[in-house]
Amino acid sequence: MVIIMKPDAPKEIIEKIERKMESLGCQVHISEGENHTIMGLVGDTTRIDPSQIEANDYVDRLVRIQHPFKLANKIFHPKKTVVTVDGIEIGGDEITVIAGPCSVESEEQLMTIARAVKASGAKFLRGGAFKPRTSPYSFQGMGEEGLKLLQKAKAETGMPIVTEIMDQEQFDMVCHYTDILQIGARNMQNFSLLKQAGKCNKPVLLKRGLSATIEELLMAAEYIMSEGNTNVILCERGIRTFETYTRNTLDLSAIPAIKELSHLPVIVDPSHAAGKWRMVEPLSKAAIAVGADGLIIEVHHQPEMALSDGAQSLKPEKFDGLMKAVNKIAAI
Ligand code: PEP
Ligand code: MN
């Protein structure tokens, strides 16, 4: 971290800041230029609150050299993190596809979709039992009954489960049934939920918030990791931009960007990004081509009857085509 003082900064103020930084555990290197005095901080800067420094009238600006995330940072952990569930890897040498309905709606619906996606090569079954809906009048999910159905589908197909946890009250219940805890876009900065996920022993699939920067996503991962749970999978699911043709805008550049910054696996959700089923396959191909470790795809055998997100759900035969296409790209 570098503190650039204003040209008129008095010596005693500079010394005061120097003493404060040293008391927080940093070494301070001061260089006096013709106009500005520059203070270079070396060592662990995690205890420093940048806004406190910037509040000083004589501080011109503060420049960060390191990223604020540590545990998620590739510099401190150059080896790729591979999350393994029931022997299935996410972030390993092969791509991993998670597929299933947006919401669990009934036993027949879930079993039909689970069997189909398994036959096409999906490794994990997704399905929401608690749904974050924009309208309180929309279907809110089946709750615990939905979680039980997911377990039933797992027992038959062998596919581990990915399901969303929406609040702390349901935490133990959802944790009990699921193999991977999904934290949705709307909860990416629910810091108490992140901390709780950090204390549990299940891997966490953390989705990027609707208007979160890459750094904010990595800081959210840092919340989970700082509580002890380092099995975090990041998910780019589209962000809010001025474009309204698609539901969100898939930020493909986030994948190579995160790969540069972090050792955590990154998967892509083209379903929520596009909001349109026709765009799911092309975006999946692009995601794999830019280096995503996998995909999470919504599939429904009767999308026109789906209780949520039918417009972006692929029919099983379309999903089968997608799997064949992305596997070819992954091989390249
Ligand atoms: C979902 O996966 O069904 C979902 C609600 O996703 P997101 O949090 O990305 O909107
Ligand atoms: Mn959905």
List the helices and strands and how they pair.
Layout: E1 2-5, H1 11-23, E2 26-32, E3 37-43, H2 50-54, E4 59-63, E5 83-85, E6 88-90, E7 96-100, H3 107-120, E8 124-126, H4 144-157, E9 161-164, H5 171-177, E10 180-183, H6 191-199, E11 204-207, H7 214-226, E12 232-236, H8 254-261, E13 266-268, H9 270-274, H10 280-289, E14 294-298, H11 316-331
Parallel strand pairs: 7-8, 7-14, 8-9, 9-10, 10-11, 11-12, 12-13, 13-14
Antiparallel strand pairs: 1-3, 1-4, 2-3, 5-6
The structure holds phosphoenolpyruvate and manganese (II) ion (MN).
Residues 102, 272, 298, 308-309 line the site of manganese (II) ion.
Describe the structure using short key phrases.
binds phosphoenolpyruvate, eight-stranded parallel beta barrel, binds manganese (II) ion, 14 strands, TIM Barrel, 2 domains, 332 residues, alpha/beta, Alpha-Beta Plaits, 19% strand, elongated
Summarize the structure.
The protein has helices spanning 11-23, 50-54, 107-120, 144-157, 171-177, 191-199, 214-226, 254-261, 270-274, 280-289, 316-331; strands at 2-5, 26-32, 37-43, 59-63, 83-85, 88-90, 96-100, 124-126, 161-164, 180-183, 204-207, 232-236, 266-268, 294-298.
Order of helices and strands: EHEEHEEEEHEHEHEHEHEHEHHEH
What is the spatial order of strands in the main beta sheet?
A: 7-8-9-10-11-12-13-14
What percent of the residues sit in helical stretches (DSSP H or I)? 25-40%
In CATH terms, the superfamily of the largest domain is Aldolase class I
Mean pLDDT: 96
Largest beta-sheet details: 8 strands, parallel, barrel
The rough form would be described as: elongated
Q: Spans with pLDDT under 50 lasting ≥5 residues?
A: none
- Given the structure, what is the number of helices? 11
How much of the residues is beta strand, in percent? 15-25%
CATH architecture of the largest domain: Alpha-Beta Barrel
Supply the CATH class of the largest domain: Alpha Beta
Radius of gyration: 23 Å
Name the hetero compounds present: phosphoenolpyruvate, manganese (II) ion
CATH-derived topology of the largest domain: TIM Barrel
Q: Give the total of beta strands.
A: 14
**How many structural domains are formed by the residues?**
2
**What separation lies between the terminal Cα atoms?**
41 Å
From the helix content, strand content and strand pairing, which structural class follows? alpha/beta
